[in-house]
Amino acid sequence: MRGLRSYTLVQQMPTKLPRIAVTKDAELAAALASVRAQFEGAAEARIVRNLAIRGAEALGTIRETAWRS
Q1: By the 8 A CB rule, do 35 and 29 touch?
Q2: C-beta neighbour count of 32 within 10 angstroms
Q3: pLDDT, tens digit, for every residue of 26-42?
């Protein structure tokens, strides 16, 4: 086709760190819905990240408390 040009929009990824995929099944969707208001409009990926970090911190605290008992 003469006269037509193909342009590819190249966008930089915001990070070079590896990413993980998480399937949004019914259980995860319900969990996200139950906490969405506490994250004031954050993207779901950001909510999942924050919950994973907070969950790991909470588990560490539980283990430390059990160890000290």
Answers
A1: no
A2: 15
A3: 999 999 999 999 999 99
- DSSP symbols for the chain: -TT----------S--S--------HHHHHHHHHHGGGGTT--HHHHHHHHHHHHHHHHHHHHHHHHH-
Domain ranges of the chain: 26-68
Higher pLDDT, 27 or 4: 27
Put simply, whether the predicted model's pTM sits higher than 0.70 gets the answer no
Q: Are 49 and 35 in contact (CB under 8 A)?
A: no
Q: Give residue 49's identity as a one-letter amino acid code.
A: R
